[in-house]
Write a structure and sequence with these properties.
The protein has 257 residues and is of the alpha+beta class. Helix content is 29%, strand content 11%. Mean pLDDT is 82; it is low at 250-257.
Length: 257
């Protein structure tokens, strides 16, 4: 039943900047990072060697011991076993500069590590990230040009007339209300006992404001299951400071003088 709350003092500048710039930059960075991540799989820097003679020296049975001496294993190398060589599985930088987009084309000759399926997926991700970044750059350029050429300004016009809020003939203040097709006037989601009549924007000539007070109905319905304070906590509240008093009337939220 809380239909209103005070707007933050910061305004919408941070959310507007995030929506226009930060979000599109985040999506672009994610697309770029994903394309390089797929291209670098399986991250072991090993490529299958085509030089069969390089394995001849290792043919036979060997006892392999870890550097710290805690693990020993027997290894047998046979003729025809595959051999591997070191290859740098990163397209960010492979000694030839920054490679963009992250597609299989940038693999060095003789040091290809991607399978056919990985090349297909990497090509899709790489060119998709390229399209996203180009689109983001064009979008940001458009926003920047529009902000430079078509920026709005605000100049204050008029002067303070020295008329306090309480002296305005038609006072308009926010009172939590609920519209219903069964009533000619809105139902009030606030305790009307402490809201001055001058704060309402409408008046029923036949019935008092308490007739439309939902808190009274709630007290009657929930009197056996909820305390008075619990019922009050279900509704919004209004706070009004009268210009002739230093303490607010017990209704919270709308007009301050």
């Amino acid at each position: 039943m809380r239909t209103w709350r005070r707007a933050p003092s910061l305004g919408s500048s941070i959310s507007s900047f995030t929506r226009r710039y930060f979000f599109i930059l985040s999506v672009s960075a994610m697309a770029l990072s994903c394309s390089y991540s797929w291209a670098g799989f399986p991250y072991d820097n090993l490529c299958l060697s085509d030089d069969d003679d390089s394995l001849n020296y290792y043919i036979g049975s060997w006892s392999v011991e870890s550097i710290d001496g805690t693990i020993n294993a027997a290894v047998t190398v046979s003729i025809g076993d595959p051999s591997y060589k070191f290859c740098h599985q990163s397209l960010y930088w492979n000694g030839k500069g920054f490679n963009f987009p992250a597609v299989p084309y940038w693999q060095s000759e003789g040091y290809e590590w991607m399978t056919e399926e990985q090349e297909l997926v990497s090509s899709f991700y790489g060119w998709s990230s390229f399209a996203v970044i180009v689109g983001a750059a064009l979008w940001l350029t458009r926003l920047t040009i529009r902000a430079i050429l078509f920026h709005n300004t605000y100049e204050v016009c008029g002067e303070d007339q020295g008329i306090p809020f309480s002296d305005v003939g038609a006072i308009s203040s926010y009172i939590p209300q609920v519209r219903s097709e069964l009533f000619s006037y809105p139902l009030l989601a606030v305790d009307t006992d402490h809201v001055e009549e001058m704060l309402y924007e409408w008046k029923d000539p036949d019935r008092p404001y308490s007739y439309y007070d939902l808190t009274r109905d709630a007290r009657q319905i929930l009197k056996d299951s909820r305390s008075e304070d619990e019922v009050k906590s279900l509704f919004s509240s209004v706070m009004h400071w009268s210009p002739k008093s230093t303490s607010p009337t017990l209704a919270r939220v709308s007009s301050e003088e």
